[in-house]
Amino acid sequence: MEKLQLTVSDFVALTNQTLEYAYPSVVITGEITGFKINQDKFVFFDIKDENASVGCFMMKFQLRIAIEDGMMVAITAQPKLTQWGKFSLTVRSIQPVGEGSLKRSFELLKAKLDKEGLFKPERKRLLPELPARIGVISSIQAAGYGDFIKIVDERWGGLHIDVAHIQVQGEVAPEQIIRALQHLNESAQPLEAIVIVRGGGSLDDLSAFNDELLVRAIASSRLPVMTGIGHENDVTLADLAADVRASTPSNAAQILVPDRREFAASLKSSIYSAAASLQHTYDKRQQLINNDLNRINSRLKRQFEILSDICQSLTRSLNQLNPQSVLKRGYSLVKLENNLPLTVAKKGDVLDIETSKSIIKAGVISNDKK
């Protein structure tokens, strides 16, 4: 049998070509050991079981969950022989396996993102009170989506909904949700809010919503985001980053829109209350006006009485000063003849003496000083 003559480089290239053809992608489950990050760029660790261990390598930007030594994970990788002759697995994605590892990964990533302030209450935004246009991210075949749409239509109706159909679990789900968020945020017809809904499931089923890049995308969304994921007790990192968390898809619909019957009753009550308040205000103002008018009328009446008394007093005074009244009391008015005023009468002047009943002519016999 003829032996194949190869250089070292050719052998490495041929081996990798064979591995790529035979095992283009493998999923391996095992325990993490020797985890480290070099230069804040390269991730190294070993994955092992009771009998074997294999070295693994991946870029840091591909690591979208938090991991540490001792965690059970499932990696999707490609076998490869390095130029230095070391066999390793080039990892494309990694997921925790088992409830313990899922919870530990959740807590590690939660602590990291919480330290960065992604979950702070003060950065949360309010949903619109009566939205007209919203975006929904979900699987249109999922029961949770159906419940959400049904309750929205029953409670309010007429709401314009742009739906981004995505997978709600599995390896591709986080990236699909991120693209859907970007698409809805950049919609040609501006939306008012985005709702992410998914029905219940196991910790593993909901692990897509604990993806670091997805959580960051929700936190940085231009539009307010509400999540309705799983059951009431299920809390994902996506829920913590969202502006509003609903306990279920149905609860998300209840939070998003009011019940039109309750809204109509509340509006009617508000109108009646406003009308009663206006009537009360009107009656109170009218009473104040009436009180002011009464006070003004009283003051005017009093002023009129005072002026009337003054007028009567002046009339009496004028009557007393009237020359005719003086004449009636027995006095007389003496003037020089021809109605000339009497200044200094001299002997021989003719006087006109007016009494109340007659005018007497008399002559001046003498004029002696007092």
Description:
The radius of gyration is 53 Å and the shape is rod-shaped. The mean pLDDT is 89. By secondary structure, it is of the alpha/beta class. Helix content is 40%, strand content 23%. The strands form 3 sheets. It has a 5-stranded mixed β-barrel. Strands 7-6-8-9-10 form a 5-stranded parallel β-sheet, sandwiched between helices. Helix 4 (173-185) runs parallel beside helix 5. Strand 2 and strand 3 (53-59) form a beta hairpin.
Break the fold down into its secondary structure elements and pairings.
Elements: H1 8-22, E1 26-38, E2 42-48, E3 53-59, E4 72-81, E5 87-96, H2 99-115, E6 133-138, H3 143-155, E7 160-165, H4 173-185, E8 194-198, H5 212-219, E9 225-229, H6 237-241, E10 244-246, H7 249-256, H8 260-321, H9 323-328, E11 333-336, E12 350-354, E13 359-363
Parallel strand pairs: 3-5, 6-7, 6-8, 8-9, 9-10
Antiparallel strand pairs: 1-2, 1-4, 2-3, 4-5, 11-12, 12-13
Helix pairs in contact: 3-7, 4-5
Rg of Cα set: 53 Å
Based on helices, strands and strand pairing, what is the structural class? alpha/beta
Determine the strand fraction and express it as a percent band. 15-25%
Largest sheet: 5 strands, mixed, barrel
Task: Count up the helices.
Answer: 9
Backbone shape:
rod-shaped
Q: What percent of the residues sit in helical stretches (DSSP H or I)?
A: 25-40%
A few lines on this structure:
With 370 residues, the protein is of the alpha/beta class. The chain is built from nine helices and 13 strands.
Overview features:
single chain; 370 residues; alpha/beta; five-stranded parallel beta sheet; 9 helices; 13 strands
